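Table 4 source record.
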Amino acid sequence: MAMEKDRGTAPLAPPAWRPPPRQPGLRYAGILALGAWGIAGAGLLGYLIKGFDGAYFARYAPKLLDGLIVTLELVSISILLGAILAFPIALARISRHAVLWAPAFGYIYLFRGTPLLAQTFLVYYGAGQFRAELVDLGLWWFFREAFNCALLTFTLNTSAYQAEILRGAIQSVPRGQWEGARALGLHDGVTFFKIILPQAFIIALRPLGNEIILMIKGSAVASVITVFDLMGQTRLAFSRSFEFQVYIWAAVIYLSIVETLRRVWERLERWLTRHMRPRA
């Protein structure tokens, strides 16, 4: 009886794994979409080859290169300054004191909830409304330059996004890390900077890469306030020649920058997380 009882209560074997059913409709749709993209790419390449003008390229390619340098300067400086601002904002955002987290929340909410174009217009055109005051304060030299206005706007915008990314990464670190550090007698400051923050940076690495890519593409907004970045030089070249190819060249340059950054960022992430991969 005991044997029968044990046999009757024995756990059932888990069901055998079965592959998900095939969906040929989705497969064919993917093949058709891939074929459509291939045809579009071939047509675009044929258009570029057929309408290529060597003299036009020699005339405007150096200007596009100058615009590319301005774009890289604008994005790199704003990302760096935004990262410096983002750290204290993120710390204030996770604070328990309303005096700290309330202004940080309002700052992030404002710059994440409004378009970058509107922010750029407010800084560039709004500064002119207070020219006398800015002259008295000795700041007009900064706001009279379109590049500086774009740089300030991009810095404030990206600092809000980076602060929110860093805030989420810090709060994503398991609570047990704090408890384990306290059990070892470590001070909270040492725990945060030596244990929590390094893990948070690894968690935030990929979102930060996405933010840099978005800033590169969003930097084209600067062209509307007479900053001759890559898009600004492209618009200038088109206005003088009405040659549509120049926009395709600019798109290829933007795509090359993004793809290069994506690959570099992926290698950086793999190098920083090499200790987390299982060893063979």
